[in-house]
Design brief:
- This protein has helices at residues 25-36, 48-60, 77-86, 114-130, 165-190, 216-226, 231-234, 236-243, 277-291; strands at residues 16-20, 40-45, 66-71, 91-96, 134-141, 195-199, 252-255, 265-267.
- The protein has 9 helices and 8 strands.
- The chain is of the alpha/beta class.
- The chain has one domain (11-291): NAD(P)-binding Rossmann-like Domain (Rossmann fold, 3-Layer(aba) Sandwich).
- Strand 4 (91-96), helix 4 and strand 5 form a beta-alpha-beta unit.
- The longest helix has 26 residues, at 165-190.
Amino acid sequence: MAPWTSADIPDQTGRTVVVTGANSGLGLVAARELVGHGAHVVLAVRNTDKGEQAAADITRAGSPGSTSVEELDLADLASVHRFVTRLPGPVDVLINNAGLMAIPHQRTADGFEMQFGTNVLGHFALTGLLLERLTDRVVFLSSVMHRIGSIRLDDLNWERRRYQRWLAYGQSKLADLMLAYELEHRLVAAGSPLRAMAAHPGYTATNLQSRTESVQDAIMGLGNRFFAQGPDMGALPELYAATVPDLPGGVYIGPDGWGESSGHPIPVGSTAASHDREVQAALFTACEELTGVTLRVPTTAR
């Protein structure tokens, strides 16, 4: 079978897709490809000026789809609520793409550790608030770095231990993956037609690698230049997860190359820890408590 590429994306005409962090990197590529196949893509971005420029660049190519730009700051739960209030009509697909990686210790507007608050809690709240309006699926973006993560249910926000940026990132990406798995379990149990799945981009050069505010920025810049794949390839797993019609819920999509660092999208495995059903459920409950958003799973039969 030939490797899956963006040329294999089915016609998206009539479908609405929300992509967080769609003004650059993987999100921009995903938005561009979806619009290129007929979708209406909502670019959910923190900086609307950059979002409008991205939208103009996407539509300038004469793509058959359309775009709109909405402000969304995942590090501020009030912003998440405002975004959902402004968003009209049903949404077919939600791609929880935006994220932060290995940044210095910071707190969100609501007091959460910034990587967990943005990568996990912001997207959890967004998913919960949109769930009853979704018609097809939600895609969470994880990472190969989920393998170094562990879920400390007693200290998800790094208040009782010394902050370690890479371990905090690993925890956030493991949490994203586990939330996708747990949400799928709940959707199946409820007989819902919705699907939840996850994807990771492998080692892809984006602006994520330039925000550590340390010498690591220069080191990762060299890695991006000589070893990483480009965002056009890195976005393929999330596009695959978002568009393949018969893809079952609960799958994890990543590159097919060595170490899942690059290549074309295929279903991949994840750590034993990511499949711990007890921790999945406890993490889900903790996210509901921290965000104040209860995920009400639709019960329409599959």
